[in-house]
Amino acid sequence: MFNCISLKNAFLLLVCLFSFSIQSVFAFDFERDVASKFFWTQSYKKAHPAPVNNMPKTMQDYYRAVNKAAEEAKNIPEPQFEKDTKLVDLPNPNIYLRKYNNPPGLIDINLNSLKKTRKVNSIGVVSPQFDKMAFTTVYYYPSTRTASSELYLMNLDTSNQDVVKRIENAHVNHGKKTLYKTGMDALELDIQKTLTIVDWSADGKRIALKEKISYTPDGLWKTNLLVYDFETGRMKDLSEVREAIRYYWRENHDLHLIDYRWDIYPIGWDSLNPDRVIVFAYASTGEKPKYLGAWSIDYQGDRTMLMSLTNTNFEVSQNGSSLRTEGGK
Questions:
Q1: Residue range(s) defining the domain that contains residue 9
Q2: What backbone torsions phi and psi does residue 70 show, to the nearest 5 degrees?
Q3: pTM for this predicted structure
C-alpha cells in the first residue's frame, strides 16, 4: 500500500516538474523573441526614417521656398570647358542656290515623320524672277488615318539685292497666302492627299504640281497633274491627260487600263514648248512595269499629245530654284 502511494506521488511530482520546466523554456524563448524583434525594429527604423512631407502648406511657404532656390542657384559656378586638341574645327556649311527640278520629276516630300509630327513642310521653291516662293504643307489626322495638303505663296523682298539672303529672310510671319487646299473639303476615311511642287513655269505665271492620292489598305492610288494659274487665280486639274492615255491604249492596243494599276509621273515643263507639261505613264501589268509613253498637255487642258512610246529623253526646263547646303541634297 505504501509503495503504491509512493509511486503515485512520485509520478505526480515528476509531471509537475516536467510541466514547470516546459513553461520555463517557453517563457524564456518568448522573452528572447520579443527582445530580438524589438531591437531589430528599432535599428530598422533608425536606418530607414519615415519620409518627411516638405510640401509648402501655404502660398507664403511656397514663395519662400522659391526665393530660397533662386538664391542658391546664383551661387552655382559657371561651367568650365577645355578645348579638345583632337577636335577638328569644321566650317559652317555654305548655303547656295540650285535648280529645284533636278533631276526632273523626282522631287517628293519626305513624309517619313508625318505620322509622328502630324505636319510636314516641303522645301520652298522660288520663282524664276526671284520675287515669289511657294511651298506645300501636309497634315495628318490619326483618328481618321487621313492626310490633307495646302499650297502657300510668299512674296519675297525684292529690295534685297542678295537673292540668297532674300530667301533666307523670308518667314511665314511676314505673310503667306493659301492658294489651294486638297483633302480638306470632305471626310474620306483612309484617304491621303498630298501636294508636291513639280516646277514653276519659265515666265513665273504658273506652278505645276502633282497631287498624290493614297488609300491606306492599298497604298498609292493615283497621281493627278495640277497647274495653278496666277493670272486667273485658279487651280486647273489636268485630268484630260489621264483620259487621253486610257483612250489611246483602249482604242489602239485593246488594253483597258481600268483593269490594271497604272499612273502618271509629271516630269516638268517642256523646254521647247513652255506652255506644256510633260508626263510619263507606266502600268503594272507584270513583273516589270510597262511604259505607256511620254505625253504632254498644255496648261489649259485643251490638247494632249503623245510624244513617244519608247523614248524618255526629252528636254525639260528647270525654272524654279531652292536653297541647299553643301553636302546636302
A1: 1-30
A2: -65, -40
A3: 0.69
